[in-house]
Design brief:
This protein has 232 residues and is mainly α. The protein is 81% helix and 0% strand. The protein starts with a helix and ends in a 5-residue tail after the last helix.
Length: 232
């Protein structure tokens, strides 16, 4: 409880900052909501990694997470020419499902950072790290909430939804950084422009998971059990 309270207190100034930015931006006042939101994204990522650092993390677990992050990053590269289609989201979710939310978050954020050394770093990198980190974290929370793990089609639905949620996170960054004025109408226009790419992402997530996801989950869970990892 003390650790959770400390995290909330640490994040509160950034949350208030972005809240003020939204409020003033929607009123048409001069503001830099993109910078405020970037500070929030960086703060959330800091909390992710700080929680992972202070958690029960063994050297073997760190090695497995690093290997999964590397594979997730490499798998992104062959599909870079097809916007939206990428198996990285599926592998990040599977990692969280098998090893817990901390590991899933670490795999997602690290995969985004590493793959962008090949695809190009930029102001979008923290947002991709945040989005994929949230994929892994929510998959880990879903796995913990369901003792036997979610069924094949529940997990497919989860990944389908994250195809659009990932797009919404990236659209939020684009909207706050490049669009003026900040109105619900302009945000809806940004969402509409990315709908096709987000749909391809969602459909690809389902396809990749149904082809390989359940087998990967079984293998990774068996490996975790044999190595006696204690992520949670």
């Amino acid at each position: 409880m003390v650790g959770t309270a400390r995290q909330i207190v640490t994040a509160l100034p950034a949350v208030l900052l972005v809240g003020i930015g939204f409020w003033r931006g929607l009123r048409g006042e001069t503001w830099a909501p993109g910078a405020a939101a970037a500070a929030v994204a960086a703060g959330v990522l800091f909390l992710f990694f700080w929680t992972f650092e202070v958690g029960r993390t063994g050297s073997r677990e760190v090695a497995v997470i690093a290997a999964l992050a590397a594979v997730a990053a490499v798998l992104r590269l062959p599909f870079a020419g097809i916007p939206g289609l990428q198996p990285t989201t599926m592998l990040v979710a599977v990692s969280g499902l098998a090893f817990g939310w901390r590991a899933g978050c670490a795999v997602g954020a690290t995969a985004a950072l590493v793959s962008n050394f090949f695809l190009g770093q930029g102001p979008w990198t923290p947002w991709q790290m945040l989005a994929w980190g949230l994929v892994g974290a929510t998959a880990g929370a879903l796995g913990k909430a369901t003792r036997a793990g979610p069924g094949r089609f529940w997990m497919a639905g989860f990944l389908f939804g994250w195809g659009y949620l990932y797009g919404a996170v990236m659209n939020l960054w684009f909207w706050l950084t490049f669009i003026s004025p900040l109105t619900w109408g302009s945000f809806a226009a940004v969402e509409a422009a990315s709908f096709g790419f987000d749909t391809l992402h969602a459909a690809g997530n389902v396809l990749f998971y149904l082809l390989a996801g359940p087998d990967l989950v079984r293998v990774l869970r068996r490996f975790r059990k044999r190595m006696t990892f204690g992520v949670e």
